Design the sequence.
């Protein structure tokens, strides 16, 4: 069996890494001694790598969210001074007030960190790693070594990005999209000096990490499923991770090419993106480049990226809603089909970010059509989730609450996508606060809800303990209410034309009527941020002190990960890998609460 | 000191919440898992309905509160169509929003776990799925059709009679060039840009340039089509015309255009809005550096007579760049002449 062969290979590799450690070692025993380094640092166990991604992601999330608190202070209280800001930011907040340069750096890093380091690496990295081998029935990834490299490239990218926060001219500050020429010319913006180089290098390494991970996920799902686990018997989480990985593999290289060209423009004297520029009192020699080319390359990843973020959350939510409703997910094949449709369309809609760049209007019309088409598979998913809980028997765990919250925010944010995808509306709302409201709800909040749901749900599998439920409930309700209070009113700011990425609105007559509202939003942001710290505390406290699991299947779920021991070793199952006989959603079938995937189909069972 | 106190209070609140959470975990172990699950189901189920009701009231209240603070009526003909499209889209999406949110939270409340309740095994139903594939598809087709129709209308070629104004973005101000009496803008070349004397790089060899005026304000004539020729001399900016519901990027090296028909003069808008200081504003809507938020220009919509009077007062850039002997008649050599020579002469 291929799984066994892989495990054997992997053992060999372990011996290679552990220099001579395996000398007096019994080759037949898989539970060999592991050193601290091989178990916790350079681990090749997918479960440990998942934990590494998760904890690194949590650290980044705290930093990224804290940045948003800082710039919200500026937006909410533009006239106030906060002396402690000067203590932490130095000359970037002289006199306790953030400078415009610092504001733009914070905004940029907030976006970069949360989109890439938290919601891509932290979300997909964690759950693809944890769940793919466990749910398809494999001992580890197709290449545990590549998997380890994937994390360490991510770590390296993290270090570079972190270091850019401390350089004298500051980190990148041209927005997370880093459009040239602003990002190409140090003379145009202080953040486009060394900070931008570090940003580009970090992102390039991040792309490598993402590719190593994604190729592994795809090959594991295609090749290493246990006996009986046909593609149509896979849980929806796996389908979601699969398409996420496909999206990543096909689109991240394009982003990388865009970044490489930008590096050439910055240091090689090329003119890919630069043309006819007069900056800092000088005429630049570059001619013939196109600043719009970068936007095409960027959004060719940038748009699939939002699905890279949201698809894993969709998979997690589908799984958790079924488990907690004690009902099969409604319309399994339609769910798979709609993920596939979204994946396909994700590649064909990038230019809807560029309706007002001077894009040929006729071409724009096609992108309108294709963009609004995505609403169809999205609608199918929403109705299927709602039907899944209909006539269920729902247990409210923090995981299921966050899943319900996910559906709510996905609806709210998805519907405003219909506004923005229509170019004739976008021409008014483009780059206003409406866009901020839209993508934060549909992609930021929703993806975070999916991630929280996943963490609460699979925490017992990760650490053999539960997280505190009451804290989970408090976390959920404050976050859900807070998210709506923060982002809902922003739609109205956007409809009033208020541009995004403004440091201060007070000089504008058209946009200064929302001062009180901005203050209110910033106040809520602080409360919601504090609540997230409560979650972080709950997470780390529960790792060491949480209530211990007494049963290997705490949520009474059907999927394979719950057939492993409470604290599975490397290799996941102590004996044979179980065989799979049915799909993952036999809940409440024929009067039985749930039937695990490993139970053979009996002849008198009803068909579905 | 007060900062320290604030941190202390927050930490205390954290500790209290944590102790409560911890205690409730012990209680749940004592009570048994089933009992405590029943209780948390009841509480969370109840909160689902509370959230739904308060949330919907909040949505209505928020709309009521902010509706009056919006921009008011569109100040351009093109914007009226956009407002109509927004209205239709708003109605459709808010209906879907309300229905789906009610279903979601109501079901969550209604089907919470109860003793004796059996979940209904309902894996799929082709008819239902067909319904909610086809209906959204039809509704979206309608929106796409209306949207694209209006989009192609407003992005079409500008009418022939449209007046021309050039808007150039630069960090962090707008430079507006008017064609003068001849109605045509002179040639320009970025290599000729000089911050003070020649902000957009006009080629003085082109006689069309002699009457072009440059200003920091955008003046347009009410009910007269205006075509903006948009460019940038450094990074990407965006001409944001929120009162007119339009915007277009300003890209270095690639000119873009945008045309519209202003319908309400600034003076009229002062009356309508009851704000005697009302001005239309031109904002930068594309992140362009540390001064992005301050990249503002005033737009004046006025009658033709007012416009003509204003433009007549604007000195031409040519005169400013050639202050020398006033006696020397402005008679630049024919445009066919080698431009480099004239440039050298001009400096």
Sequence:
């Amino acid at each position: 069996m291929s799984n066994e062969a892989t495990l054997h290979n992997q053992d060999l590799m372990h011996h290679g890494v552990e220099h001579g450690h395996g000398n007096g070692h019994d080759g037949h025993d898989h539970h060999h001694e592991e050193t601290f380094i091989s178990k916790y640092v350079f681990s090749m166990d997918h479960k440990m790598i998942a934990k590494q991604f998760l904890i690194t992601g949590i650290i980044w999330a705290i930093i990224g969210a804290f940045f948003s608190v800082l710039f919200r202070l500026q937006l909410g209280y533009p006239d106030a001074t906060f002396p402690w800001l000067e203590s932490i930011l130095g000359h970037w907040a002289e006199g306790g007030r953030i400078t415009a340069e610092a504001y733009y750096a914070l905004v940029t890093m907030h976006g970069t960190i949360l989109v890439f380091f938290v919601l891509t690496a932290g979300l997909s990295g964690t759950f693809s790693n944890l769940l793919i081998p466990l749910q398809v029935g494999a001992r580890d990834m197709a290449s545990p070594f590549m998997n380890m490299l994937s994390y360490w490239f991510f770590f390296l990218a993290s270090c570079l990005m972190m270091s850019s926060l401390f350089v004298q001219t500051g980190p990148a500050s041209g927005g997370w999209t880093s459009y040239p020429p602003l990002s190409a010319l140090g003379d145009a913006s202080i953040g486009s000096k060394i900070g931008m180089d570090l940003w580009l290098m970090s992102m390039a390494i991040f792309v490598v990490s993402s590719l190593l991970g994604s190729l592994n996920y795809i090959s594991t799902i295609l090749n290493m499923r246990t006996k009986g686990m046909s593609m149509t018997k896979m849980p929806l989480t796996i389908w979601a991770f699969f398409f996420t990985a496909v999206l990543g593999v096909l689109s991240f290289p394009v982003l990388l090419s865009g970044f490489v060209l930008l590096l050439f423009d910055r240091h090689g004297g090329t003119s890919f993106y630069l043309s006819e520029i007069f900056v800092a009192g000088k005429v630049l020699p570059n001619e013939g480049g196109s600043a719009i080319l970068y936007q095409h390359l960027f959004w060719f990843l940038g748009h699939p990226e939002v699905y890279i973020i949201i698809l894993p959350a969709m998979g997690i939510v589908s799984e958790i809603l079924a488990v907690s409703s004690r009902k099969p997910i409604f319309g399994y094949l339609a769910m798979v089909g709609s993920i596939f449709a979204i994946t396909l369309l994700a590649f064909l809609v990038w230019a809807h970010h560029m309706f007002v760049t001077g894009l040929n209007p006729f071409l724009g019309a096609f992108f309108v059509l294709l963009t609004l088409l995505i609403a169809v598979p999205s609608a199918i998913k929403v109705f299927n989730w709602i039907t899944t809980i209909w006539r269920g028997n729902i247990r409210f765990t923090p995981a299921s609450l966050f899943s319900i919250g996910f559906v709510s925010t996905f609806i709210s944010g998805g519907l405003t996508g219909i506004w923005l995808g229509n170019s004739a509306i976008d021409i008014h709302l483009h780059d206003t606060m409406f866009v901020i409201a839209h993508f934060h709800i549909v992609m930021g909040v929703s993806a975070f809800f999916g991630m929280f749901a996943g963490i609460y749900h699979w925490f017992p599998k990760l650490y053999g303990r539960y997280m505190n439920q009451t804290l989970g409930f408090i976390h959920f309700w404050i976050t859900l209410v807070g998210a709506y209070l923060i982002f809902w009113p922003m739609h109205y700011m956007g409809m009033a034309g208020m541009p995004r990425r403004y440091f201060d609105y007070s000089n504008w007559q058209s946009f200064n009527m929302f001062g009180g509202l901005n203050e209110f939003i910033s106040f809520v942001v602080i409360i919601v941020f504090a609540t997230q710290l409560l979650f972080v505390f709950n997470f780390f406290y529960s790792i060491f002190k949480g209530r211990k699991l007494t049963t290997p299947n705490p949520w009474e779920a059907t999927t394979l990960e719950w057939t492993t021991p409470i604290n599975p070793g490397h290799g996941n199952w102590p004996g044979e890998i179980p065989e799979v006989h049915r799909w993952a959603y036999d809940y409440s079938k024929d009067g039985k609460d749930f039937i695990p995937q490993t139970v053979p189909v009996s002849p008198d069972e009803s068909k579905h | 000191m007060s900062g320290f106190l604030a941190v202390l209070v927050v930490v205390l609140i954290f500790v209290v919440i944590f102790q409560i959470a911890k205690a409730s975990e012990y209680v749940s172990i004592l009570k048994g898992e089933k009992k405590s699950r029943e209780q948390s189901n009841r509480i969370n189920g109840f909160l689902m309905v509370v959230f739904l009701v308060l949330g919907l009231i909040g949505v209505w209240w928020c709309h009521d509160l902010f509706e009056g603070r919006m921009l008011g009526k569109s100040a351009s003909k093109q914007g009226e169509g956009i407002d109509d499209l927004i209205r239709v889209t708003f109605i459709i999406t808010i209906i879907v929003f309300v229905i789906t949110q009610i279903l979601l939270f109501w079901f969550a409340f209604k089907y919470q776990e109860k003793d004796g309740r059996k979940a209904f095994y309902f894996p799929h139903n082709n008819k239902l799925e067909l319904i909610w594939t086809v209906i959204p598809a039809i509704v979206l087709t309608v929106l796409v059709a209306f949207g694209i129709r209006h989009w192609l209308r407003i992005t079409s070629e500008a009418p022939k009679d449209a007046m021309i104004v050039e808007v150039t973005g630069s960090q962090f101000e707008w430079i507006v060039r008017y064609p003068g009496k001849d109605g045509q803008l002179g040639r320009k070349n970025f290599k000729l840009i000089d911050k003070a004397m020649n902000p957009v790089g006009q080629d003085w060899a082109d006689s069309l340039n002699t009457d072009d005026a440059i200003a920091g304000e955008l003046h347009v004539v009410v009910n007269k089509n205006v075509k903006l020729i948009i460019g940038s001399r450094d990074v990407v900016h965006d001409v944001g015309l929120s009162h007119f519901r339009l915007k277009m990027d300003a890209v270095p090296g690639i000119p873009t255009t945008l045309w519209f028909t202003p319908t309400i003069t600034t003076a009229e808008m002062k009356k309508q809005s009851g704000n005697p200081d009302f001005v239309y504003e031109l904002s930068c809507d594309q992140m362009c550096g540390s001064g992005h938020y301050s990249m503002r220009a005033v737009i004046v919509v006025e009658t033709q007579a007012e416009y003509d009077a204003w433009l007549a007062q604007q000195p031409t850039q040519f005169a400013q760049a050639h202050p020398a002997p006033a006696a020397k008649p402005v008679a630049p050599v024919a445009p066919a002449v080698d431009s480099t020579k004239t440039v050298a002469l001009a400096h």
Remarks:
- Chain B touches chain A through 121 residues (CB under 8 Å).
